[in-house]
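Standup notes
- HV: blocked on the assembly model, inputs below
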Amino acid sequence: AQTVTQSQPEMSVQEAETVTLSCTYDTSESNYYLFWYKQPPSRQMILVIRQEAYKQQNATENRFSVNFQKAAKSFSLKISDSQLGDTAMYFCAFMKHVGWTSGSRLTFGEGTQLTVNP
Amino acid sequence: DTEVTQTPKHLVMGMTNKKSLKCEQHMGHRAMYWYKQKAKKPPELMFVYSYEKLSINESVPSRFSPECPNSSLLNLHLHALQPEDSALYLCASSHSAREREKLFFGSGTQLSVL
């Protein structure tokens, strides 16, 4: 079974600054995906960024980037130039590569509540 | 259209009621999911449908009954629920071939069982 651990229940950052959220995972799979989802007060889960395990290059989406350390099983999220709208619960998630007929199972961490202060 | 639409947004029901949650998408996705999320907790997978067939049931009690009548629609029928079933119920969908790891979530139905 896979486990995902987020060790920071809460974090805060000043607007325009940079913040890093930590995530570690445990798996025996060699082929998998890692994700960061955000859940603002509206409670919709929004995909922020995803990383395929076989790719060594770290994924980047605008102000969001990851530091993927496969050997260490670490997957941190860096948010640059933080904005008030980044205030949300952030979930790290794991998905093993599955066959195309089966659907996909996401395993979430416990989440990190990020508050961006003006 | 890149939306997953869930109705109703809020639902209050008694323990003897029967109600249904509805989820709809028109992205051509052939995998659809139900997740349950308690306050300040991560979502937990309940069911997965792939090509309108139930492929994963995470040992969910029978008072929750999923249904996938067609490729665009997913229902969750509720009967004889308990107060501890109060939660946010999230629906999601994904493509079955390309980028099947990308799940699109709806905004959820906030359920209160009295």
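- HV (later): unblocked. The two ends of chain B are 36 Å apart (CA to CA). Chain B has a mean pLDDT of 93.
- Next: hand off to the docking folks.
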